[in-house]
Specification:
The chain has about 220 residues and is of the alpha+beta class. It is about 30% helix and about 20% strand. The chain is built from 5 helices and 7 strands. It has helices spanning about 5-20, 45-55, 65-85, 155-160, 180-200, and strands spanning about 60, 90-95, 105-115, 125-130, 135-140, 140-145, 160-170. Strands 1-2-3-7-6-5-4 form a 7-stranded antiparallel sheet. Helix 1 (about 5-20) runs antiparallel to helix 2 (about 45-55) and helix 1 (about 5-20) packs parallel to helix 5 (about 180-200). The longest helix is centred in the last third of the chain and has 22 residues, at about 180-200. It is globular and about 45 Å long.
C-alpha cells in the first residue's frame, strides 16, 4: 500500500461529511425496524459508503429487523458470559449496483474481550485509531471498532466485562486501496453504523453519541 499526497484532502472530506449529520436522528421509539441498516440517500453513511465502494448507488439487505437484532445481540452477550466466546451477528449487507460479483460490504456486531482492542499484529498498511473513547483499526478490506457499551438491567454487569465490537468487510476494495484516505472513510462509516447499533441496544453510557473525528494514531505502519 502506498501513501497518497491527496490524503489530507480526503481527511478533510471525511470530517466535513461526518460532522454534517445527526441533529435529526430519530428517538428510540421512532426508529424503523430497518434502522440498523437503513442508509438513506444523502446521509453521511451513504456518502461514505459510496466513496468507499466507488459506486453511485447500492442495494441494502438487512440481516434482522431491529427488535430481533437486539435480541440476538443480547443472546450473544449471554453466550459470551457462559463460554468466553461468541459468534458475531451479521446484520447489514450492501451491494454496489450494476457490478454483480464485484464484492460487497458486510457489517457484523458482537462482543470481544477487553484486550482485543489492543492485541494482535497488524498487517502492513493497517492504521489504528482512537475516536471518542472507542478504538479502531482499518486495513484495505476489514475495519474494526471496539467500544464499551453498558446495557441496562440484568446484562449491565456482563456488558461491563467486554467490549462491543463492530466489524465491517469491504470486499469491493480487495487489492485496490492505495491511500490512507479510504481507510479513514471506512473507519468513519464503521463508527456511524456502530452508533446505530448501540442506540438500538440502549447502551446507557451512550458511547458513540458524538460525531466521529477520524485521527489515526501516530506510529501506524506506512
Amino acid at each position: 500500500m502506498r501513501s497518497s499526497r491527496t490524503w489530507p484532502l480526503l481527511v478533510v472530506s471525511v470530517l466535513f461529511t461526518v460532522t454534517s449529520c445527526s441533529d435529526g436522528t430519530p428517538s428510540r421509539a421512532e426508529r424503523p425496524d430497518d434502522y440498523a441498516c437503513a442508509v438513506s440517500a444523502g446521509s453521511p453513511e451513504a456518502k461514505l459508503l459510496s466513496q468507499v465502494m466507488r459506486t453511485d448507488s447500492f442495494t441494502t439487505r438487512n440481516g434482522y429487523r431491529s427488535p430481533r437484532f437486539v435480541e440476538k445481540a443480547q443472546d450473544r452477550l449471554r453466550e459470551y458470559g457462559e463460554e468466553g466466546k461468541t459468534l458475531a451477528v451479521r446484520q447489514c449487507f450492501f451491494f454496489p449496483d450494476g457490478r454483480s460479483g464485484d464484492g460487497q460490504t458486510t457489517v457484523e456486531y458482537g462482543w470481544a474481550p477487553l484486550s482485543d482492542a489492543q492485541k494482535g499484529t497488524d498487517a502492513a498498511g493497517t492504521r489504528r485509531y482512537r475516536l471518542n473513547g472507542a478504538t479502531g483499526r482499518s486495513g484495505d478490506v476489514t475495519t474494526d471498532l471496539y467500544v464499551r457499551c453498558e446495557l441496562p438491567g440484568e446484562l449491565k454487569e456482563p456488558s461491563k466485562k467486554v467490549l462491543f465490537h463492530a466489524g465491517v468487510s469491504f470486499t469491493t476494495n480487495l487489492g485496490t486501496v492505495e491511500d490512507h484516505g479510504t481507510q479513514d472513510q471506512q473507519m468513519s462509516f464503521v463508527y456511524l453504523m456502530a452508533r446505530r447499533a448501540t442506540e438500538l441496544l440502549g447502551c446507557e453510557n451512550r458511547p458513540l453519541a458524538k460525531d466521529p473525528v477520524v485521527r489515526p494514531l501516530t506510529g501506524n505502519a506506512p
